[in-house]
Amino acid sequence: MELKSLAKEWRIWILAVVLGISVVSLGPTPQDTNNDGAFDTYSLTGLNGSMGIDFTGGSQLTLKVQNNQSEQVASTVANILEERIGTLGLGGSVTTRDVGGEPRISVTTPVTNTSRVAELIAQEGSFRADMPFIVRNSKEITVKDTYSFSRENGSVMVSQGNQTLSTLDPGESVEAGDTRFFYLEDEGETSLMSVRVYDNQDIQGVRRSAQMGYGVSGSPQSGFEATIPLTISIDAEQRMKDVAQNYRSSRGTLVMEDGRTANLTIYIDSEEITAFSVSDFFRSSTTRNPTINLNGDSADDLRTRMKRVEGYLESGNLPEPVEVVGRQTISSNIGGQFMTASVLSIIGALIAVGFIVFLRYRNPRLVLPIVFTGASEVFVLIGLWFTNFATLTLSAVAGIIAAVGTGVDDQIIIADESEEEQVKDWTQKMKTAFFVIFTSAASTIGAMIPILSPNLSTTLIGAGSIALLTYNFYTDRSNSHYVAAGILGLTVAFASSTFNLTPLESIKEFATTTIVGILVGISVTRPAFAKVLESMEK
């Protein structure tokens, strides 16, 4: 083997560069420093952050949109939930799929407590900020327009001018113009009402400069408090000023008629989260950057509440309520066992390949390049694909093994072609071998498309079949092969559209990994292996 000339070959250098990048992607990342400023702990964050719950443990929830089963609504809900789990710090992913003609939303997260995950993501997340007011006999509130409230037998009649809008009992609300009024509770001689100041639709941004510190005394004994800065719409800004005109000022704070503080109260799904006083500053001025103040007894509790409120504010409320219809939990211990089994499976596949190749060729020098090439493909997939673009799951491991198998097939084709005794130069032999390799790769990739997208593959097969039959008809040819192929394609397309093939998407990681492995093989490792084999022949 001419090692010097082989070292100058650009195909070998491409393989070396790709392997080097994979090493860097998988390499240890410094985490902490010691007293001397040197790093003393490292973490393989590249791969750890890319492993699915099959290996790390976690939970998977299947959700159903209750009222509207359209794909558009399901997609909107999925986008909101994906942003929500990211803001809440749960991590994971959200996907949609079709089950029996109805969309389902799958939420995968490393958190193993499915009840906690369901509580956080299945809530509608409806946010609103209200200001209270009381109605003793009658009361007028002006927000752009003036509305009258009359109390009688515990109910409150809401009217505008001579028009009665609604009669409310405790717990009910009414939309008046672009403002909503709520009847909170009957206090005996008075009715406690509230007016909406802003809600989800008015939130245009949640700034990440939220601050947390000790309470009023500046010590842990007084608890902890946090401030979440917001950016609201211009309409909400003006509405806040309009609402503030209905209150009087006492020591710089807005108060109701009976002297109680008119606290701005934050609700999420009708649950009171916090309430705080409002400065009389808002009677004369406006701001688009109000803040939400939260309090807690411990830093951890307050931090959890902050993430929850930020998550609902940033993601918005769900357009339709969702229902949890399926739960799956994998413990970290079982995930570790899966990882061990997967690693042993890949190593066993490479050993089996080496043994069978040795039996076939009886040449130890040929076994090493073939096994090394297969191992290189595995390393590149793990080091580049899974650390940067995809999640490593059990079905993805099956795709890795499938890619190794197709890779070995291609290398055997190259080896067999190189041993042909026909009078051919090396270039012609490799052209023949790579023609077979590319044809095989194309057919394998085509076989993976139905797993990636059953609907797309059905459409392509049907369209191709119609095009083939149309071409045969308009060219006045009676090619029985074309007719048979077209009819067969239409039959397959019809059968595919009749039966539900969407469950195939549950193993799409297998198809994706197989395709990527094939592409890595035909573009990087196969050409390098052919050059190594050529050097061995010389």
Overview of the structural elements:
With 538 residues, the chain is an alpha+beta fold. It has 3 domains: 53-123 and 321-330, Alpha-Beta Plaits (2-Layer Sandwich); 127-299, no CATH class; 333-447 and 506-537, Multidrug efflux transporter AcrB transmembrane fold (Up-down Bundle). Helices cover 48% and strands 26% of the residues. It is built from 15 helices and 22 strands. The chain has helices spanning 3-7, 10-26, 45-48, 53-56, 71-87, 114-121, 234-244, 299-315, 332-361, 364-388, 394-418, 426-452, 454-474, 480-498, 508-537, and strands spanning 29-33, 39-43, 58-65, 93-99, 102-109, 127-135, 138-143, 145-152, 155-160, 163-168, 173-176, 179-186, 191-199, 203-206, 211-214, 224-232, 248-250, 253-255, 264-268, 271-276, 291-296, 322-330. Strand 1 (29-33) and strand 2 form a beta hairpin. The model is unreliable at 37-45 (pLDDT under 50).
Number of distinct beta strands:
22
- The average pLDDT is 80
Structural domains: how many:
3
The percent of residues in helical segments reads 40-55%
Assembly of the depicted chains: single chain
Strand order of the largest sheet: 11-12-13-6-19-20
Gyration radius, to the nearest Å? Answer: 33 Å
Report the portion of residues in β strands: 25-35%
Profile the largest sheet. Answer: 6 strands, antiparallel
